[in-house]
Amino acid sequence: MRFFILALAMLLGGCASVERPKIPTPWLAVSFSFERDPGWNVVEARGSETAVVRRYLRDGDTLDAWDELVSLETALIRSDLHSFVENFQAVRSDPNVASTAEASSRGSMIVRYESPLSDELSIRRFFAGPDGIYMLAYHVRLSLADPERLQIWNTILAEAVLVENPLFGFLQPEDVPLDAAMTMTEPCRFIGTLHRRSRVQLDLLRKAQRIDTNECRCATTKLATIDRQFTAACPDVPVAYVDVKAAQRAAYESCWGANRPLDTEDALDITR
C-alpha cells in the first residue's frame, strides 16, 4: 500500500468547542511505500495556514528521544525549488554540518546532511508543487546509520511521487473563502486563494462528468502556470479578479475536447 499524506487528516485533536484556524488543503500529496520498511507509528500531526507536518517513530521512541524518524512536511509558500532548498541548507544550526544537494527526477531535489551537533543523518527529498514545497525525510542517529537501512530509504525516497490530493473530492468552493478586500490588503494571498478555489471547481466539474480526466489534468496544469505568473508579479503589479478570470478562460480553451459543449465560464472560480 502506498501512503497518501492528506492535509485535513493533520488536524490536531482537542476540545470540539474550541474554534480552530482553517488549515488549507494542499493541491497534491506525497505518495510513498512504507511497506518497504514497516513498523512506523504516527506520533505528530499538525497544520497551520503556512505548513502541514506529519511525523512517524518506531515503538519506544518519542519526539524528545528517538533513534529514527520519518517526517512529511508541506510548506505552503510561494518559492521556487532551488531557492527553498538553498535557504533550508543555510539555516542549519550546526556550523560543522556536511550537506549536499542534487537534482532528482520529476522536478525534485534530494538533500543529504550529517550534523555532529544534533547527532543526526538525514536524507530529504523536496518536490515543487503548484501551491508550495512538499518534503519527505528520513532521519537517523549517526551511530545507528546502517548502510542497509539507508539503502531502503534511498529507494523509498527515489520512488516517492506527488499525486492529486484525494481530499479535493470532499471540498466545496465555500470551503476556500475569498475576500475581495484582499485584492488591496493582501494581493498575493488573494491570488493563492483564488486559484485554490478554481482548482476545487475543476475537480467538481470532473466528478460531475462535465469534463473528463484528461481535460481536468490539462486545465489544472494551465491553472498552475497562471498562478505562478500572477504570483511572480505580486505585489508589484496590481491584481484584479477580472484579469485572472480572463487569463483562465483563455488558457482553458485549449483543454476542452472538440465536441465539449462546456462554457469555460463554468470552470472558473464561482465568485462573480
Throw out a few tags for this protein:
single chain; 272 residues; alpha+beta; Protein Transport Mog1p, Chain A; seven-stranded antiparallel beta sheet; three-stranded antiparallel beta sheet
Distance between the termini: 42 Å
Number of strands: 10
Uncertain residue ranges = 4-20
Q: What's the shape? A: elongated
Structural class, from helix and strand content? alpha+beta
Read across the widest sheet, the strand sequence of neighbours is 3-4-5-9-8-7-6
What's the total helix number?
6
| Helix content, binned percent | 25-40%
In the CATH scheme, the class of the largest domain would be Alpha Beta
Going by CATH, the architecture of the largest domain would be 3-Layer(aba) Sandwich
Please state roughly what percent of the residues sit in beta strands, choosing from under 5%, 5-15%, 15-25%, 25-35%, 35-45% or over 45%.
Answer: 25-35%
What CATH calls the topology of the largest domain is: Protein Transport Mog1p, Chain A
Protein model, in words:
This protein has a 7-stranded antiparallel beta sheet, sandwiched between helices. Strands 1-2-10 form a 3-stranded antiparallel beta sheet. α4 runs antiparallel to α5 and α5 packs antiparallel against α6. It has 2 domains: 166 residues, Protein Transport Mog1p, Chain A (3-Layer(aba) Sandwich); 89 residues. It has 272 residues and is an alpha+beta fold. 30% of the residues lie in helices and 25% in strands. The protein contains 6 helices and 10 strands; from the N terminus they run βββββαββββαβαααα. β7 and β8 form a beta hairpin. The N and C termini lie far apart (42 Å). About 6% of the residues have low confidence. The longest helix has 21 residues.
